Amino acid sequence: MNGLFITIEGPDGAGKTTVLNELYPRLQMIANSEIVKTREPGGVMIAEKIRQIILNPEHQQMDERTEALLYAAARRQHLVEVILPALNAGKIVICDRFVDSSLTYQGAGRRIGMKEIAQINEFATEGLTPDFTLYLDVDSDTGLRRIHRSRTQEIDRLDLEGLEFHQRVRHAYLKLAEENPARIHRIDAKASLQEVVDSSFSAIVEANPKYFKRGE
Ligand code: TYD
Predict the structure, then answer these.
(1) Taking the model in full, what pTM does it have?
(2) In terms of Cα–Cα distance, which of 20, 213, 5, 29 is closest to 91?
């Protein structure tokens, strides 16, 4: 396996998806190999069906461990069908959310415990860890305000959680970033979109010089 595995993470309302859409064409212009932009569940049919079960607002009775196992199952299928083949072909994979989302949302948000979530995800991923993670950091008030103001899509089951849930998620992200300084790069996502995109771009290129030609 000689590709590069990058993930992008952050609490709801951090703007990950918008930032990634802006970043992708800029990175592709200077990349030494093809970039595969994906997101869990990434259009993989089985994973997509699992995700519909998780996020359906009617499923209020879902047990939190069931939720964690379903995320891990969807992740496994996406990994096998999309991420691993791309990495094995030497491509650069940029994935919108990965194991860190489960550690923070299920481990801390749902209070299952980050160690427990790490264990089931170790099984699901066979230990595959991103080479580099961009963490878009936003405080929970701002994040929640953004999702309720600008969401064009429907509000999903996790968006319905209150402020305290989202605060636990954010604190867990900050803890992960502190514990993994070599892998996780924190970006202040309260800045303007252009500033966030520019600093994300520089962070990715500088941390992975073998994969990108310097100077656009
Ligand atoms: P997603 O569809 O990626 O939406 P967005 O990133 O645009 O917010 O994720 C939907 C929700 O699922 C989001 O609130 C985060 C949550 N989530 C988890 O709780 N655990 C996970 O492992 C993943 C991947 C997502």
Answers:
(1) 0.94
(2) 5
Chain-centre distance for alpha carbon 208: 19
Residue pair 40/81 in contact by the 8 Å Cβ criterion: no
Q: From CA 157, how far away is CA 54, in angstroms rounded? A: 8
CA of 88 to the centre of ligand 1 (A): 26
Q: Is the CB of 97 under 6 A from ligand 1?
A: yes
> CB neighbours (10 Å) of residue 189?
26
DSSP for 10-50, please give it. --TTS-HHHHHHHHHHHHHHHBSS-EEEEETTTT-HHHHHH
Read off the pLDDT of residues 56-99 as tens digits, 9 standing for 90 and up: 989 999 999 999 999 999 999 999 999 999 999 999 999 999 99
* 184 CB within 6 A, ligand 1: no
